Amino acid sequence: MAPPEYDATVHRQLGELIAGVKNLEEAFRRSEDKSDASRASVHRRMDDMVDRIGKVEGTVMQVKEDVTEMKPVTDDVRKWKLMGMGALAVVGLGGTALGVSIAGFFDQLSKFFRG
Length: 115
Hints:
By secondary structure, this protein is an all-alpha fold. The chain is about 95% helix and about 0% strand.
């Protein structure tokens, strides 16, 4: 049989070894808990981001539909503007011609009365 001090040393070393293993198990468990929490946080943030991107896509689609609806109106307004500018030019030319004609008429009239 082994001496009593040898048994005590073996028991002490075995106890230290068991305590070390328990400490390692606890450290691994804490690390796994932190990893689980971190992964859950990443998944939550990704889910939030997916929701936000979905909302942005919906908004962009609505804006595209609105722009598609507005485009014909905008084109019509541009056409009206060009037509209005053309009409103003025609009226301006007509007014100028009328003014020149009236001025010529009064010039002729004044020459007629002066003799």
